[in-house]
Amino acid sequence: MKNAVHAAALCALASLSLAPAAPALAGPAEYVFPAIVEEGEKEIELKAGTRKLRDGSRESEYMIGFGIGVNRWWFTELSAKWHKEPAEHHDFDAWEWENRFQFTETGRYPVDVGFLLEIERPHDRAEGYEYRWGPLFQADIGTSWTTNLNLLIEKHIRTEEPEPAELGYQVQARYRWRPELEVGLQGFGEFGPWDHWKPTTEQSHRWGPALFGAVKVSQRTSLKWNAAVLFGLTNGSPRNQLRMQAEYEF
């Protein structure tokens, strides 16, 4: 455990030392990254979300991807993303390549530790590339709760205008009631530049209740889903947001 925690700390410090600084709001289809990798598991995934902004307009997004647990410590997924700005049509927005690495053996220590490296290539070449990286933490509390905490740095490079990096987070608490239906909460937020946070009222924080479920389709296939209604907690947040994620695993 000592080596795993040390590795996670080094990754977090590397994230901070490599990132310069400025804020960007994650998309409406945002989701919580798990720290655990399932070796050999393949999945087809749909993610979608919509949110009402402070000015009353609406922004939407959906993503379709294919992922695979390459081995016991590496999961990779390639997704296509469509985005709708207020008063515009849905247009293809970007390709996204997600990579998750698990540092600890599942369940061996009180906290499972992982790491995210995500690269996004926007359709609009003027937007350059988007990188997101940081440590992932997952832990069971007692026999009924599973919790997640992710600390992530987001940085755009090769853009027409320089954009500093931003520090964000994801939190989740899930009560394992029964596989078909579980309850909990999810929270997402951005503080602003990692080394100089925005005033609290200008930060974006979105929290709300969530539902989770899993249905066994056959011995080797299953359908998992989760959805949440999020509410903006500051003036820098959307008024509200609805997000969902569905995975067909085989």
**What is the residue-mean pLDDT, rounded to a whole number?**
91
Q: What would you call the quaternary organization? A: single chain
What is the H/E order?
Answer: HEEEEEEEEEEEE
Category by helix and strand content: mainly beta
Biggest pleated-sheet summary: 12 strands, antiparallel, barrel
Helix-strand layout with pairing:
Layout: H1 2-18, E1 42-52, E2 58-69, E3 74-84, E4 91-102, E5 112-122, E6 129-141, E7 145-157, E8 166-178, E9 181-193, E10 204-216, E11 222-232, E12 240-249
Antiparallel strand pairs: 1-2, 1-12, 2-3, 3-4, 4-5, 5-6, 6-7, 7-8, 8-9, 9-10, 10-11, 11-12
Q: Could you characterize the architecture of this molecule?
A:
The two termini are 31 Å apart. A twelve-stranded antiparallel β-barrel has the order 1-2-3-4-5-6-7-8-9-10-11-12. The protein is built from one helix and twelve strands. It has one domain: monomeric porin ompg (Porin, Beta Barrel), CATH 2.40.160. The longest helix has 17 residues, at 2-18. Mean pLDDT is 91; it is low at 1-23. It has one helix at residues 2-18, and strands at 42-52, 58-69, 74-84, 91-102, 112-122, 129-141, 145-157, 166-178, 181-193, 204-216, 222-232, 240-249. It has 250 residues and is mainly beta. Helices cover 7% and strands 57% of the residues. A hairpin with a 2-residue loop joins β8 and β9. This is Transporter. Keywords: Signal. Residues 1-26 form the signal peptide.
Structure at a glance:
With 250 residues, this protein is mainly beta. 7% of the residues lie in helices and 57% in strands.
